[in-house]
């Protein structure tokens, strides 16, 4: 391979052993340098070692929870321009959570009958896949934190959001959701103990779509009580609900 900086390019006035060695070293360095490394890369295909740099460059540090699966990191980075453009909107939150495979039911105050208190929102986010490696359960404290972190990074802070975290997935028997009240982001932002790990599998055999949420009070026997035991809640409150399949 020809030298990038030939020795005869060193001007006569400084053509000594030191200058020639410097030119040869610089030539070797530049010869191995890939100029494509200076270009904006596609987050979906870039080398994984560049993801931390891209996170900073794209202003996405506030969205990233340590340990988040690489797939979700790449999706967040790929959606960064849209997310930043839509920050402070419901569409922005949906776009960001979509990178984690999270779907959202969002009811604004004026959509309630009668209308609720101004600028209050009821949000249910459904986890459809694992966010961290090595976890068998979907509803974990780490998952709850990761979802809340994304919402905090995108939401408009004048909004008071009553937030619930749940599991939602399509099955031949319908959609089954396990919903956990996670926290109210504004104004108190109090932490809530994570729901016992809900293992997904046999839940899909349920004959209808229901929502489960933790309850401090004991409830009467229900036809889907076995489902509650499977989820791991010692006491649950059953709420009739119809939900569209989420993909």
Automatic annotation (TrEMBL):
<dbReference type="Pfam" id="PF09684">
    <property type="entry name" value="Tail_P2_I"/>
</dbReference>
<dbReference type="InterPro" id="IPR006521">
    <property type="entry name" value="Tail_protein_I"/>
</dbReference>
<protein>
    <submittedName>
        <fullName>Phage tail protein I</fullName>
    </submittedName>
</protein>
